[in-house]
Fold:
Amino acid sequence: MPGPLALDTAREIIRFGFPEDKRVAMFSSVVDALTTQMRSSMMGELNNDPGAKAIVDRKIDEFLVTGKVVLTRHIPGFMDAYAHAYAREFSQAELTEILAFVKTPAGTHFLSRNSALISDPAFVTENQAYMRDLQPLIQQMQKDLMGDLIGYFAKHPPKPTKSS
Structure:
């Protein structure tokens, strides 16, 4: 359990590194960048069917609107979780040095833009290649999972729950 001084220092790092008025934009930009990369690398098989692609795009767009509302509600919790994690991960001396860095223009710029670097062309290229290579594995896993679940539920029908 981190001490109160470590936690206070970590919260100062968060305050400077993730300015409250920019947090939603910072988190949203990460979601947008990853979604754009996912669409371009994982939806290639729909390029020959504009109707199907439009349906998937519309559903992703609808999900993102609602998902960002949920994300926004969780940002304060994420910030507190970061502070606790920083306080556990780094010594007080390190936290003090990090805070000093974060208070500089370079430090503020570093933390405010660090998560946005996933939009850098080099990262985008590598991440899309990764996702393209991963896609067949995901599809096979989904197929296997559905088969396993269908087989399981055929032998063990689901029991009603209190919420059903």
User: Anything to note?
Assistant: The chain has one domain: 4-119. Residues 4-119 form one domain.
